[in-house]
């Protein structure tokens, strides 16, 4: 095809990516997030393949990630209209997860995406996407932790979100009632673990038992507080006398 015959492309990279994604979703149900789906999306959206590759260098994989990102964005827009401060923490977490699942309700696209990200070469991208969802939720809920809690909260929530999505994929109950019951149980489990951790911290005897591990965990800082990612190790101050300086775990 000559340059003069190519369709006129207008819009930002994000807009072009959205057009490709909208065009691809129909084909995903049949061919998954594949090269064939990506090529068909280019044709259906009237976007030159060279332009599409510039926006999505990895083709359908980048479109699948864009699909996940769209769900996060819709969730955040919906959460921004809620008075989250008026809700209990467990209700805020459950509401965020529910909004995230309801934001993108195409089960086949999600199922095909789960298969794509289960491949060894794509697993890191899939894990990063789910971690990003958990981070957005905690940020929306006002989490300001800057130590190991930043990680444990997001890791726990990522597990709850991931398991809830898998349950939802196989749920045929009316209005997904079984999914929301499953989600509530998982959220309660996470909050119970947090309650146990708080009890350990407040117990003088257990606090001494866990003083060493807690001190080590306290050397880790969340990425928002440092330049590194996913965190960094804070070295103790080097002694000046030449002798090892005992470190008080408390």
UniProtKB/TrEMBL annotation:
Region (Disordered): 221-250
Biological process annotations from GO: ubiquinone biosynthetic process
Alphabetical list of Pfam families matching this protein: COQ9
Keyword S-adenosyl-L-methionine in record: no
Domain COQ9 C-terminal: 125-193
Keywords: Lipid-binding, Transit peptide, Ubiquinone, Ubiquinone biosynthesis
InterPro entries in UniProt: COQ9_C, Ubiq_biosynth_COQ9
Pathway assignment: Cofactor biosynthesis; ubiquinone biosynthesis
GO MF entries: lipid binding
Function of the protein: Membrane-associated protein that warps the membrane surface to access and bind aromatic isoprenes with high specificity, including ubiquinone (CoQ) isoprene intermediates and presents them directly to COQ7, therefore facilitating the COQ7-mediated hydroxylase step. Participates in the biosynthesis of coenzyme Q, also named ubiquinone, an essential lipid-soluble electron transporter for aerobic cellular respiration.
Similarity comment: Belongs to the COQ9 family.
Record-given protein name: Ubiquinone biosynthesis protein COQ9
Protein source organism: Aliiruegeria haliotis
